[in-house]
Amino acid sequence: MSETPPILIVDDQEKLLKLVILLMTRIGFPDVDGVTSGPEALERLRERKYALVISDLMMEPMDGLTLLREIRGDDALMNTPFILTEASFDFEDINLAHQAGADAFILKPFDMSVLKSKLKQVINRKPRRREAPLAAESALNVDFPMLGKF
């Protein structure tokens, strides 16, 4: 039996956090931890290696974008795949998150097929390199399939 990688879910709304953990378990990820704040997520990430972080964008006191920047700024954590979730994204959110190093965006409520495809895409991507200062260039090649739903 192959071991599935651990995933960390970050959402300041306890009910949504439990729901996402349940969804992840149902689609084949039995090793899922959940925390309700960015600082708690950073603490967990420094204790255990996660294959993926799925974080809500709008949280207090640390939002998902700040959490993402903290992770990308830490040499030990910078390659941790990161998906941002929110009920709606505007262009500025997507732009800022992409510049900060988000790997994908998923709209809430989750569409199971989109969730599965994003997980596969993000978990299988190549590691980042520090020496790539022009992240904006790659922004032009990003796939945002959920934007077609508007």
UniProtKB/TrEMBL annotation:
Keywords: Kinase, Phosphoprotein, Plasmid, Transcription, Transcription regulation, Transferase. Transmembrane segments: none annotated. It holds the Pfam family Response_reg. SMART domains: REC. InterPro entries: Bact_response_regulator, CheY-like_superfamily, Sig_transdc_resp-reg_receiver. GO terms for biological process: phosphorelay signal transduction system. One of its GO terms (molecular function) is kinase activity. The modification 4-aspartylphosphate is found at residue 56. Residues 6-123 form the Response regulatory domain. This is Chemotaxis protein CheY. It comes from Methylobacterium bullatum.
